[in-house]
Amino acid sequence: MSSEAENGFVRVNNQLCYFSIDGQFFAVAYQANLIIKSSKTAATVHSFIFPSIIEYLEWSKNSEYIVCANIKKAIIQVYSIYYPEWRFKLTEGSDGLESVNWSPDSRHILTFSDFNIQISIWSLENLSVTHIQNVKSSYKKLYVSPNGKKLAVVISNEGEDQIEIYKTDRWKLDKKLICGRLNSIDGICWSPNSELLCIWCSFSDEAKLIIYSNKLERDIAVFCPAQILNSSEIEYTYEKELKGIENVTWMPSGQLLAVAGFNEMVVLLNHVTWKPLLQLYLDPVIKENYLNKVYKDVIVQTNKNISFYDKHILEEKSERPINIKIGKKDNIDRLSVAKFDILVFSFCGQYLAIKHQLYPSTLWVWNINEDYLDYLLLENNITSVKWNPTRAHMLIFCECAHMFEWTPSSARCIPTPRNITALDARWHPEGNVLLLCGYNKAVIHQIENKS
C-alpha cells in the first residue's frame, strides 16, 4: 500500500465513493466529476464528466460499468470501465425520478418514477424499456433474490396489496401472490438461498409474518408476535410481548430469522419450526450477568484548552447496574415511531449488531451462539456500523475524529487518518482496506489484520 493510498484524501459528494464488486477499483463522485481509481495504488484510471451534479452512483454487478444519476433533474448516464468512449444516457421523463438501480445481469437499468408510480426497466443492449405498474408508494428499493433470478414487487391495486414475482432474465411475470391473510403488506425480504420470501404486516394486533416457499409455491409457515408471550420454546422469557413487526433480517446462513418489533424487542425464529428460539429486549438498565461485557467511551483530556485534541479510550466496566443514556426527543422525528436503525448480522452469522433510535449512542452486540451481550456506550451518536466481509470484526462510526473497533475478544478506539470526521465506510471485498467517508471527503485506509 503506497503512502498516497494510505493518507491521500479525495473530495466526494455526499459520501459517494464505492469499491467495485471485484475490488479492483473504487469510484468517487465529486461535483460533476466521476473518478475511477485503482484500489491498490489509488492512482486515477479514468475520469468522466457528468452533465450535472452527481447525486447517485452504483457499480454494476460485473464491475464493468457505473451508473450515475442526478435525481432532481432525472438524468441518468452509464459509463464503461473498459470502453471509456462509450456512453449510455437516458431521461426518465415527465414522471420524474425516485431512484436508480442495476439489474443482476448488468445489462439493464431499473428506475422508480416519482411517487413510485412505476418501475421502468431499460435495456442497454437494444434500448427497449419495460414497465411494472401500480407499485406500492411506500417501497423505494428493489427486492431482488440473492441469486439474481427473481424480482419481488409489492403492487397496490384498488386498495388491495399483492406481490408480483418477475424472472429477471426476460422480466416476465412469473407468479402473483394474493396475501389474503395480511391486511396490508408492509415489508418483504428474500432468504439467503433465494428459496423463501418473508412477507409481513407490521402494526399492532394485525402483525403477522408469512413465509412463502418459491420452490413449493405455497406458504410454509405463519408467525404472529402474540405467540411469544409465555412461549415454552424460549428459554429466557420476558413479561413484554413483541409489539408489531418493524423489520426482518436473515442470518447469512439462513438458519435464523431476526424479527424486530416496535417495543425495542428482537426475536430469533428457528428456520425449521418457525417458532421463537431466543429473544432480546433492549433494557435501558444493564443488569448483572457475568458473561456480558460493557465498554464505555472515556475521554482523557490531553489539552485543557483545546477539547478537539482530547483522547478517547474504551474502558471495560465491571460495576452493575449501569443506566444506558436515552436520546433527546428532538433527535427523533416527532411524526414517527422510534425504530431500530441498525440490525445487522456479522459475516459468520454468530453476532448481531443492534442500535435503536431511543439510545443513539449505544450499540448492542449479541452473541447468538452463547446468548450474551457486549455493550458499547459511546459519547457521540452512532452514525453507522460496518462488519468486515471476511471475519467477525466490526467498525463503529460516530460524528467525530475517531472510530471504534470491536472483535469478540476486545474493543478499542482508533484515531481516524488526519482527524477526518468519519460518518461511514466501505469495506474492500478482501476485508483489509476500507474507504472512510466524511461529509465531503474520503480516504482509503488500511486495517491491521487481526486473527
Structure summarized in a few sentences:
The chain has 451 residues and is an all-beta fold.
Describe the structure.
The structure is a single chain. This protein is mostly beta strands and 451 residues long. 1% of the residues lie in helices and 47% in strands. The protein has a 6-stranded mixed beta sheet, with no helix packed on it. Strands 1-40-39-38 form a 4-stranded antiparallel beta sheet.
| Structural class designation | mainly beta
Strand residues, percent: over 45%
Any idea what the radius of gyration is? Answer: 23 Å
Strand order of the largest sheet: 28-27-33-32-31-30
Helical content stands at: under 10%
Count of beta strands: 40
Number of helices: 1
- Silhouette: globular
Mean pLDDT: 90
What are the low-pLDDT stretches, counting only 5+ consecutive residues below 50? Answer: 1-6
Q: First CA to last CA: what distance?
A: 20 Å
Main sheet attributes: strand count, strand direction, barrel closure: 6 strands, mixed
Write the layout of secondary structure elements.
Layout lengths: L2 H5 L1 E3 L5 E3 L5 E6 L2 E6 L5 E6 L6 E4 L5 E6 L4 E6 L6 E5 L7 E4 L5 E5 L5 E6 L5 E5 L9 E2 L5 E8 L2 E8 L4 E6 L9 E4 L5 E6 L6 E6 L4 E6 L23 E4 L5 E5 L4 E6 L5 E6 L3 E2 L6 E8 L10 E7 L4 E2 L16 E6 L5 E6 L5 E6 L4 E6 L4 E6 L6 E5 L3 E6 L2 E6 L8 E4 L5 E5 L3 E6 L5
